[in-house]
Amino acid sequence: MDNVLVDFVSAFKHLTEKQKNEFKNNMDDIDGIFSLMEPIPKAIESYNKIIDHFDVYILSTSPWDNDSAWTDKIKWVKKYIPKAYKNLILSHNKHLNVGDYIIDDRTANGVDKFSGEHIHFGTEGMENWDKVLEYLFRKENIIL
């Protein structure tokens, strides 16, 4: 979710300087921070294109030291992708889920052990949603 559908950094403009200084090494521990984030460009549109061809789940982790994170992530999905909130899975063990693909910006939390293909969002060739859709649809012989 974070840095794939959700622009984590977009929340920073809503924080006080005190919050930024106090949590500078752990910004994800700021209470309510996940409710302040905006979507990554083209993320919502891309999600809506993907669900026409795939069984899609949103798989995300949440920091243990932020009591509002889990709730805020559910609220974010309800706000920006309302039809997807029942397809949200919050887990620190992404490899326990089964699928053909996982689109993630990192290899942490079990992504490196996921049984399907990791589409490494934000890396060379997968820099944005246009590139991810192009790759995924070409690989599956789906015409955009």
Overview of the structural elements:
Helix content is 26%, strand content 12%. It has 144 residues and is of the alpha/beta class. It has one domain (6-139): HAD superfamily/HAD-like (Rossmann fold), CATH 3.40.50.1000. The strands form three sheets. It has a two-stranded antiparallel ribbon with strand order 1-2. Helix 3 links the parallel strand 3 (58-60) and strand 4. The radius of gyration is 15 Å and the shape is globular. The model has no long low-confidence stretch (mean pLDDT 96).
How are the SSEs ordered, and which strands pair?
Elements: E1 6-7, H1 17-22, E2 38-39, H2 43-50, E3 58-60, H3 69-80, E4 88-90, E5 101-104, E6 117-120, H4 129-139
Parallel strand pairs: 3-4, 5-6
Antiparallel strand pairs: 1-2
Family: Belongs to the 5'(3')-deoxyribonucleotidase family.
GO molecular function: 5'-nucleotidase activity
Pfam families: NT5C (PF06941)
Summarize the model shown.
It contains four helices and six strands, in the order βαβαβαβββα.
Q: What is the helix/strand order?
A: EHEHEHEEEH
Strands, total number = 6
Q: Low-confidence spans: pLDDT under 50, at least 5 residues?
A: none
Q: Could you please say which CATH topology applies here?
A: Rossmann fold
Largest sheet descriptor: 2 strands, antiparallel
- Please give the order of strands in the largest beta sheet: 1-2
Mean pLDDT metric: 96
Name the CATH superfamily assignment: HAD superfamily/HAD-like
How many structural domains can be distinguished in the coordinates? 1
Number of helices: 4
- What is the annotated CATH architecture? 3-Layer(aba) Sandwich
Q: What is the radius of gyration?
A: 15 Å
Q: What is the molecular shape? A: globular
What is the SS-derived class?
A: alpha/beta
From the N-terminal CA to the C-terminal CA, the straight-line distance is: 23 Å
Q: Can you tell me the CATH class? A: Alpha Beta
